Amino acid sequence: MKQGLFVTLEGGEGAGKTSSIPYVQALLENSGREVLLTREPGGTELGERIRELLLTPGQGEIHENTELLLMFAARAQHLQTVILPAIEQGKIVLCDRFTDATYAYQGGGRQISNERIAVLEEWVQQGRQPDMTILFDIPVEQGLARANQRSDPDRFEQEDLEFFERVRQAYLAGAQEQPQRIKVIDASKPFEEVKQQLDAVVNTFLREHNLS
Description:
Blueprint: E1 5-11, H1 17-29, E2 35-39, H2 45-55, H3 64-88, E3 92-96, H4 99-109, H5 114-125, E4 132-137, H6 140-147, H7 161-177, E5 182-186, H8 191-208
Parallel strand pairs: 1-3, 1-4, 2-3, 4-5
């Protein structure tokens, strides 16, 4: 059986990443492969419990190092029990956030050094990277205006504007460093134009892997 593929979606608040998931999933399913949809933090029973700890306001102060370690604890469980087995079964794994989010939120936002994050990344992932990451980029104020129209803000959404500016810049820096893997979508555009960008990115990816 052919190896599966690993695709991740990233973006700041209000970028439209989550609402675009069904469209991206449908494009990937055109390959004829089964697509497994999952998310981080989460994706497993343990991971979802960690997610609740990390996202629910009013949990008391969580130190930045604790937050970082909890992210990778959830990721270790997720990789070993969900992501890697699915890839070995030939599936395409589509994950809402992965380690790029850690570099953006804990690295850029919390200002933890990339070197510290990289140590945990290597330990947990042992070199495993997504085959493609789609980054939904949007100006911070526009994204926050969208996000504020949704439900009550979670623990991260309560951060200030400067936090999210650092998150965005960390995402864009990662895309500049790894342009072959990270494909940037202009998420400030109307959804029809976003879909056109997604068509181009996903269909090129499938052709490159002989799945179109």
